[in-house]
Specification:
The protein has 139 residues and is an all-alpha fold. The protein has one domain. Helices cover 77% and strands 0% of the residues. The longest helix is centred in the last third of the chain and has 17 residues. It is elongated and about 45 Å long. The termini are far apart.
C-alpha cells in the first residue's frame, strides 16, 4: 500500500490552507486531504455534473444564475445516488491512513466534502454553461 499512497499524495500535491497548533482535526483533514483532492478532481466534477444535468433533461442550463446556484445545492444534498457517486470520486483518492481517519468521523467529513464541492461548482457556473455548449455540439 505504501506505493499506492505515495503516488496518490504526489498526484494531489501540497496542503491547501493553513494548519497551526489550534487547527482542529477535521480542518487539518480538510486542508491536507479534501482541498487537494477537490482541486485535482475539478475537471472530473464538472464533467460529472454536466452529464447529470444533461440526463435531467437539460433543465439546469435554462435556469437563471440564482436558480442554478440553488439547483447545484439541491441536487447534491437530495440526490443520494449522485452524492454517493461524488463522494466515491473523492474517497478514491484517499490513502489508506486517510480512509481510516475518515471512517472515524465520516458524517462530519461528508458534510464538509459536500459543502466544499457545492461551493466549488457554484463558483464555476459560467464554466458549466460554456462546457455544456461544447457538450451539446458533440451530441
Amino acid at each position: 500500500m505504501e506505493n499506492r499512497d505515495s503516488h496518490i499524495i504526489a498526484l494531489r500535491g501540497e496542503t491547501i490552507g493553513s494548519i497551526d497548533a489550534n487547527t482542529s482535526h477535521d480542518e487539518i483533514f480538510q486542508n491536507r486531504t479534501l482541498r487537494p483532492i477537490l482541486k485535482t478532481q475539478n475537471d472530473l466534477f464538472i464533467a460529472v455534473f454536466i452529464n447529470y444535468a444533461v440526463k435531467q433533461k437539460n433543465v439546469f442550463f435554462s435556469l437563471s444564475p440564482e436558480k442554478k446556484m440553488a439547483y447545484i445545492e439541491n441536487v447534491i444534498q437530495r440526490d443520494i445516488k449522485f452524492r454517493n457517486s461524488l463522494k466515491g470520486i473523492i474517497i478514491g483518492l484517499f490513502t489508506v491512513e486517510e480512509y481510516n481517519d475518515y471512517i472515524q468521523n465520516s458524517s462530519n467529513l461528508n458534510k464538509r466534502m459536500m459543502n466544499m464541492l457545492i461551493e466549488r461548482l457554484k463558483n464555476q457556473v459560467l464554466l458549466l454553461e460554456n462546457d455544456n455548449l461544447q457538450h451539446k455540439a458533440v451530441i
